[in-house]
Amino acid sequence: MKDLLNRVIEARTAAEAAVITRREEAAALRHQANTAKLLAENPTLLKLRELEVVERVAAGGKLSVVLGEKGLADRVVNLL
Q1: pLDDT, tens only, 58-71
Q2: Secondary structure of the chain as H, E, C letters
């Protein structure tokens, strides 16, 4: 009887953990969708995000970034 009760408790705990995981995944997807919508509606925010990513990449090693007429993302891809 004790073994059966322990299995029930384990199953209940696993189910609760799965629900929490699904909620967190759904929240992360909503966050990503909201971010994508903001970036699509605001090109300036997209440019700022590009600069933040380049800054992180450049901080990790020796990388020279040249800003010019083309898009920043195109330049970075060509450099890499």
Answers
A1: 787 776 666 666 66
A2: CHHHHHHHHHHHHHHHHHHHHHHHHHHHHHHHHHHHHHHHHCHHHHHHHHHHHHHHHHHCCCCCCCCCCCCHHHHHHHHC
